[in-house]
Amino acid sequence: MTSIPLVAVVGNPNAGKSALFNMLTGARQKVGNYPGVTVERKSGRVFLPDGRPIELVDLPGAYSLDPSSPDEEVTRDVVLGKQEGERLPDALLLVLDATNLDNHLRFALQLIALGLPTVVALNMVDLARRDGLEIDPQVLERELGVPVVSTVAVRRRGTDELREAISEAVTAARLVRPGTGTAESFTTVQRRAREIARAAIVGETVVRRTTHLIDSVALHPVAGPIIFGLIMFFMFQAVFAWSAVPADWIDGRVGDLQGAIAAALPEGLLRSLLVDGVVAGVGAVIVFLPQILILFLFILLLEATGYMVRAAFLMDRLMARVGLSGHAFIPLLSSFACAVPGIMATRTIEDPKHRLTTILIAPLMTCSARLPVYAIIIGAFIPERAVAGAFGLQGLVLFGLYVIGIIGALVAALFLRLSVTRGTHRGFLLEMPKYQLPQLRDIVLGLWQRALIFLKRAGTIILVSTILLWVLLSVPQPRPGETALESSIAGKVASGLEVVVRPIGFNHEIALALIPAMAAREVAVSALATAYAIDADDETAAEQPLKERLRGRWSLPTALAFLAWFVFAPQCLSTIAVTRRETNGWKWPAFMLGYLFTLAWLAAGATYWTATALGL
Ligand SMILES: Nc1nc2c(ncn2[C@@H]2O[C@H](COP(=O)(O)OP(=O)(O)OP(=O)(O)O)[C@@H](O)[C@H]2O)c(=O)[nH]1
Ligand SMILES: [Mg+2]
Description:
By secondary structure, the protein is of the alpha/beta class.
């Protein structure tokens, strides 16, 4: 049986392939299935201008010849002539979305390099025109080396020209031998796609042009990551540099409040509960409100301007290298605020193993609850010195802690993907929104919500655990010659834990603070404040800032080990709870607790031992 020529419709998802297929075939369609897979095969008959029939087959949309789904696999196999139940097409009808030219050209270049006779349908030119985008099909034709026809599939525009071009292509088909495609790297193809798009776009509105101009720098393979790094770096500098004045102010008011309560109440349990428990504990955490707001000001600005999506794009390649999909970026990004919404956001990740990996590493992103812990230790132990003339050492250390968290997450992902969550890689592409000036209202609202969340935590979980700790630290009351840190119930429990954390340089008070901090990380700070306040032997010492008290009691290696511990330790009940809910059982939260506490212990230990050996 001599078969009629076969032409495959290919292109990115949503380019308008099916619309174009319908426009050309009309009602003459057949729907079947490819053998062995659940992917549908839709084909139809088209009569060329000279009356010859061809068979047109509508392939699933794909982003590249590197398949990340069964659909994309079929598309690749068909164009390579390897698909069971399909012969190698005689020609390709390549559909491009004119409004998304540089993205779609990437796949187009790969397909054209296969060497099959190809006709390009430059589709959606109506939408492009509406956006103020004018594309010269002749330039495209010259750059791609194949015929290009402008079409509007939904309005049947371009039908005749397309059939004419297909006719020529299938005639030529007898003469060409298909090649094997291109071995060029993703980056090379990407650059070429962008060059072609730039050459073909002859008219563009100012907004579009500006967006492209900024992107040519922001997404540049070298400049892009550098710019991203600089922005992050500046952000952490600002967290310390801008917060000093408001934080001191809050600190002063907390001290005033303690003084006022102390003056108004007689010496006794109630006074101790209020001054040493509630105000010392909650106050120690509230002081960090300015730093949290500065951090979120940056995050909100980056999101509102449209830069965050670019950051996701830049990170995609790095994530792919550790076996994660770019889809994980947004959940991981939200985990910088809090792992709970981050873990819930993993629901958008289809592949169950990618999703699980993302859930398991989400707690390694530095959430805002760690900021008080980091900030108090950095404030107490890292001198407020400038490095290399301009950069604050404190901001630098904070930046470093965030980076260590990220590196930890990437390495963990790599190991998980090689062991418990082994699976295949999935590609990822993003539509880039245009850049925008952020709306002041949105930013203010976002900050307000953040402040409320933070203060609510201070008023609930931190307040409650502080009061509980105060009770456990006050019962039984120390006898003369004893301290509350030793004799109380909390003190006794801490002594038990101390056995485990002593080798990594932690002292009794740290052991004491770690237990209530299982509820939430900031509680470590309020717990230390409460413990030291109760323990202070005289009034003046009670009003001494926590920072100074730490400085007097901890060695530098201990302080550094404490920081390293909190980079990894999964000390957050809500995270454990949400992991249990999202993974339907205790297996994965238990695994998460196990591997993260092990890492925390090892990291703190390594830090302590190294710092001690260096004589710090
Ligand atoms: N305005 C306009 N809309 C179009 C055009 N072509 C397609 N569309 C619309 O774009 C959307 C996507 O079109 P489809 O034909 O389903 O795209 P596809 O390439 O088959 O997508 P997948 O099968 O998912 O890969 C549909 O809502 C179409 O109606 C066009 O030329 N102009
Ligand atoms: Mg389709």
